[in-house]
Amino acid sequence: GENVEQHPSTLSVQEGDSAVIKCTYSDSASNYFPWYKQELGKRPQLIIDIRSNVGEKKDQRIAVTLNKTAKHFSLHITETQPEDSAVYFCAASRPGNSGGYQKVTFGTGTKLQVIP
Amino acid sequence: ETGVTQTPRHLVMGMTNKKSLKCEQHLGHNAMYWYKQSAKKPLELMFVYNFKEQTENNSVPSRFSPECPNSSHLFLHLHTLQPEDSALYLCASSQVSASGGQDEQFFGPGTRLTVL
C-alpha cells in the first residue's frame, strides 16, 4: 500500500520567514496531492492541492511543488504570519480499486509555530 | 448547518457500551469516509462508501461497524471498544467521478471519543 512520509514533525519560524514542509510517497498510482491545515480543536481544511500532471501551483503565499520522478512534493509558505500556526498534513491520493472513491494516505503532520 | 456535520461532538463510553456516531453531508457528494485521528499518528482511513456501497475496509476490527443508509448519511456503530480506541473520529465526503477524478475531501468537526 501507499506510504507517505512527512518532515519535519515540528517547525518554528519567525514571523515573515518562509516555511517548507516535505513529503515523499511510494505508490506511483497516486495522482492527487492535497495539503490540509488543522488548527487546534478544528477539522482539517484544504489549503492547496496539486495533480500529477502539474509540477507547481501557487496561491498567494502558499505554493506546492511536485516531482513525480522522485515521488516527492513540498509545501512552501512565504511571509509567514502567526495565524499560519497549525498542524499541516500532506496526503497522496489515488482512485480506489473499484472506482468512484479516493484512497487517501496522510502524512504524520507538521506542527508549524510562527513566532511573532 | 452546511457542509459535513457530526454528532455527538464528544462521547465517553465504557468498554461494554454500545454507541453510534453519526455523519451527515449536505454537499451532494457521492463518497463518504471514516477516519481515525490519534495523537502523534497520521489520519487513518477506516471505511469508504460510494453511493451507499462499502468499497473499502482498511482492516478495521469488527467492534467498529459502519452503516450507510443513503448517500448523505454515514454511521459508525461501536461496541465492546478498548481504551486504545480513544481518538478523534472524523467523517469526510468528496465527489469522485467514475473515471477516478479526485477532488478535495470535506471533513466534519469530528467526534472526540473516550473509552474508559
How many β strands of chain A by DSSP? 11
> What is the count of helical runs of chain B?
0
Instruction: Kindly provide the radius of gyration of chain B, computed on alpha-carbon positions and rounded to a whole number of angstroms.
Output: 14 Å
Note the overall shape of chain B.
Answer: globular
Order of helical and strand elements of chain A: EEEEEEEEEEE
Shape of chain A: globular
Mean pLDDT of chain A: 94
Radius of gyration of chain A over all CA atoms, rounded: 14 Å
Strand residue percentage of chain B: over 45%
Report the count of strand segments of chain B.
11
The biggest sheet of chain A amounts to: 6 strands, mixed
Question: Any overview of this molecule?
Answer:
- The complex is a heterodimer of chains A (116) and B (116).
- By secondary structure, chain A is mainly β.
- Chain A is built from no helices and eleven strands.
- In chain A, the strands form two sheets. In chain A, strands 2, 4, 5, 9, 10 and 11 form a six-stranded mixed beta sheet that branches. In chain A, strands 1-3-8-7-6 form a five-stranded antiparallel beta sheet, with no helix packed on it.
- With 116 residues, chain B is an all-beta fold.
- Chain B contains no helices and eleven strands.
- In chain B, the strands form two sheets. In chain B, strands 2, 4, 5, 6, 9, 10 and 11 form a seven-stranded mixed beta sheet that branches. A four-stranded antiparallel beta sheet of chain B has the order 1-3-8-7, with no helix packed on it.
- In chain B, a hairpin with a 2-residue loop joins strand 5 and strand 6.
- The mean pLDDT of chain B is 89.
- Classes of the chains: A mainly beta (116), B mainly beta (116).
- Chain A binds chain B through residues 4, 6, 31-32, 34, 42-46, 49, 89, 93-109, and chain B through 30-31, 33, 40-43, 45, 48-51, 55-56, 90, 94, 96-100, 102-105, 107-110.
